[in-house]
Write a structure and sequence with these properties.
Its cofactor is [4Fe-4S] cluster. Belongs to the FldB/FldC dehydratase alpha/beta subunit family. GO terms for molecular function: hydro-lyase activity; iron-sulfur cluster binding. The structure is a single chain. This protein is α/β, with parallel strands linked by helices and 336 residues long. The chain folds into two domains: 118 residues, Rossmann fold, CATH 3.40.50.11890; 206 residues, Rossmann fold, CATH 3.40.50.11900. A four-stranded parallel β-sheet has the order 2-1-3-4. The chain has a four-stranded parallel β-sheet with strand order 6-5-7-8, with helices on both faces. Helix 5 links the parallel strand 3 and strand 4. Helix 3 crosses helix 4 and helix 7 runs antiparallel to helix 8. The longest helix is centred in the middle third of the chain and has 26 residues. It starts with a strand and ends in a 7-residue tail after the last helix.
Length: 336
């Protein structure tokens, strides 16, 4: 299979049908033991320090791993992707554009996916066959999610990892399916953790993945990962076509469409509070204003930059926030 890099989740069904091996450059970057080397590559090539670490990491991973083709999402994801694509083109990398239309009309979503299929010379039947195969694995991610918020056996980090990795299916469909089946079997045998505080994680997947283990020190755990869950397409089985599936995908569309699903999950999962992670120098940080106004449970905004571990100040803020949540559950009066 030919390798192709992704700047974010796209209709991978099309790429698999075309005989490609999709690689999410975000995952390649952040799971590396020496992830800073990718940021260094970007900064040596002229990327400013005052730019999102994810963009620099994606660029560095693409260059370091000699990725010759990528899909760049030009609308519906990072506002810096257009500039990233221009630099990659300069480096001789072939870029295929894809957009999640701002209009969020079904006919516009269909038009974009049709164009994507035409670019890669595949038809709808081929794509739907692949979608059926991938949805079987997505259903395993749904099981892990249920083991997190219903059975309270899966950890927040496991919930994060096995959903976010479905952007490229761990780079190997069959192997990843086998891995998930083994993980599910292992998790089912555990006792429920029964942490007192039920947290939701919203916003882009974190640079600081230790946040999941950190909150467990304070009788809390994450039972919801918003964007990671969307990467796993939990409602894919309900969609009658690939067009409906990507129309129903909340992440790339406007904040109010996301909030509808957020409110539903807050109620269903009985969340006590939310931690909203944003990345330094990212426009999505402004969405925190709307989120705090629209949601009726406490929300703490934490910001990450280049570190892959929480700093002392952020740890202190999270600890204080969780103390307030605990006091509120115990009946104390407080203000957020």
């Amino acid at each position: 299979m030919k390798r192709i890099g992704l700047t974010t989740t796209v209709p991978v069904e099309v790429l698999f049908a075309a005989g490609y091996h999709p690689i999410d450059l975000n995952n390649l970057f952040i799971t590396s033991k020496d992830y800073m080397k990718y940021i260094d590559i970007a900064e040596r090539d002229g990327f400013p320090k005052s730019l999102c670490a994810w963009i620099k990491g994606i660029y560095g991973a693409c260059i370091a791993h000699d990725i010759k083709e990528i899909v760049g999402v030009m609308e519906g994801d990072c506002s810096n992707t257009k500039a990233l694509v221009e630099v990659l083109l300069l480096r001789g990398i072939k870029v295929y554009p894809y957009s999640f239309p701002h209009s969020h009309k079904q006919e516009d979503v269909k038009e974009e996916i049709d164009k994507f299929m035409n670019i890669f010379n595949v038809n709808l039947e081929e794509v739907e066959n692949i979608r059926d195969r991938l949805n079987k694995i997505r259903y395993l991610a749904k099981e892990i999610d249920q083991l997190t918020y219903m059975d309270q056996k899966a950890k927040g980090f496991e919930n994060h990892l096995y959903q976010v990795s479905l952007s490229d299916f761990g780079q190997d469909i069959d192997q990843y399916e086998e891995e998930m089946e083994k993980v599910i079997e292992k998790i089912r045998k555990r006792k429920a953790n029964n942490k007192k505080i039920r947290l939701g994680y919203i916003g882009v997947p974190p640079m600081t993945a230790d946040i999941y283990a950190f909150v467990e020190n304070f009788d809390a755990h994450f039972v919801y990962n918003e964007v990671q869950r969307e990467f796993a397409f939990p409602r894919a089985y309900e969609a009658r076509s690939i067009f409906e599936q990507y129309y129903d995908y909340t992440y790339p569309y406007d904040i109010h469409f996301r909030i509808k699903e957020l409110k539903k999950q807050i109620a269903e999962r009985k969340l006590d509070a939310i931690i909203h992670y944003t990345q330094a120098f990212c426009y999505r940080a402004v969405e925190d204003i709307v989120i705090k106004k629209e949601l009726d449970i406490p929300v703490l905004n934490v910001e990450g930059d280049q570190l892959n571990a929480l700093d002392a100040r952020t740890k202190l803020r999270i600890e204080a926030f969780l103390d307030m949540i605990k006091d509120a559950k115990d009946g104390a009066k407080w203000t957020c």
